[in-house]
Amino acid sequence: MYSQITQGKITYERRTNLYKKFKNDSYVKEWLREEDKNKIDVFELYFNDTISAFKPQESDLVEKMSWATSKNVVYQNYKTKQRYTEKKIWGEHFVLLDSVRKFQWKITDSKRNICGYQCRKAIWNVNDSTRIYAWFCLEINNSIGPESILGLPGAILGLATEDGGVIYFAKSVEVKAPESSVFVPKKAKKTYQESELKAQLEKEFGKEKWGKAMIFNNFAIW
Q1: Per-residue model confidence (pLDDT) at position 32
Q2: 81-102 residues labelled b (16+ CB within 10 A) or e (exposed)
Q3: Which class is domain 8-221?
Q4: pTM, to two decimals
Q5: Are 92 and 190 in contact (CB under 8 A)?
Q6: Cα→Cα distances 191→46, 84, 92, Å
Q7: Does the chain have fewer CB atoms within 10 Å around its N or its C terminus?
Q8: 180, 7 Cβ separation under 8 angstroms
Q9: Residue-wise pLDDT tens digits, 186-215
Q10: What is the mean pLDDT of residues 84-111?
């Protein structure tokens, strides 16, 4: 019998393989050096039994290759089923107000230990060519995870694209009630629905191969 955890903070390390991310962008690939191949970002997911807040970890260090990966901020309310997302796309800041997403997961019998928690593997087929793996634990029974991804009967502590291009793994779990202030998003002058912003970007960049990849990564997966 599991002891149920319903509030706390999960710290994730995200490892992005930039060679794989920019495989269709010959310009960027040309000058990416081997030492820049893997970019690591750290995020924190605060949660209680009603709401969660996913955001990049604050740091005073100057970040190398900051432009190469996105750092979304996502607030999700599980009672109202609302999602508030801050995205930066090509240097421009957007705020999305939309519903909590729905996923079709296939839960497998495969297991692994992450951060001292026994996790089960689940699979989400994004489309015919893209698959996402998730490892979730039942001890944290909130349906939460990195970015806007959720829908499993427990917290997602590991998440990866099938090709290993993007991998999230929890580095620590703190069982402590978060301060209420972490769940309050910044006020935005303008907000979009996801479908509205996606349509706008498709109109502007959808004919380019890099534009299609950017739109897919920002809306189909994360």
Answers
A1: 73
A2: eebbbbbeeeeeebbbebeeee
A3: mainly beta
A4: 0.92
A5: no
A6: 23, 9, 13
A7: N
A8: no
A9: 899 999 999 999 999 999 998 888 788 889
A10: 95
Which residues pair with residue 76 across a beta bridge?
Answer: 52, 83
State the Cα–Cα distance between residues 129 and 90, nearest whole angstrom: 26
- Polymer length of the chain: 222
Distance CA 71, CA 62 (A): 15
Residue 3 burial (10 A CB sphere; 0-12, 13-18, 19+): exposed
Residue by residue, DSSP assigns 164-175 as SSEEEEEEEEE-
What is the phi/psi pair of residue 172, to 5°?
-160, 155
Contact present, 43 and 11 (Cβ < 8 Å): yes
Q: Is 90 left (phi over 0), alpha (psi -120 to 50) or beta?
A: left
Question: Is residue 116 left, alpha or beta, with left meaning phi > 0 and alpha meaning psi from -120 to 50?
Answer: left
Q: Which tokens belong to 185? A: 């998003």
DSSP code at position 3: P
Hey, which residues does 38 pair with through a beta bridge? Answer: 17
